[in-house]
Predict the structure.
Amino acid sequence: MPWSPEAESQRNNVTIVPIWAKLSKVPKEQWTKKGLSFLASLIGGPLCMDGATSMQRRLDFAKVCVTIPLDFEFPSSIKLKIRGKVVFVDVEYPWKPPSCSRCSRFGHLTARCPTAPTQVWVPRTNLIREQNPSGAAPVPGRTSQNVATQAR
């Protein structure tokens, strides 16, 4: 969708985003379009592979693009069972989109949420400072009768 004022107004309604995932230790049985698509589907919604992966020019890792929801957990590995043997495929994410659990939107972290209540400093105007002859301010709840003094 090309940019337009309508597209800009929909920016806060984004619920899924595409991200790249780097898959390492991929079993050779999975180095097919169908196999890599299956692995990608275990992470998110498969979209595509990078050129080097689809042309099998680089076999030490695969890069797949998947869609993820706002509450995505970013697993660091995928557990597979191939011919009765458990195998783990490592997953890395070159970029993790910032997301907010307060307003359920992408684009910022919860600590910087624009919908969070803000604290505003308001100066106290009704505070009256009383001073005794020595210049010290009184302690609230204390009177001069119950304050010990030291003779000089």
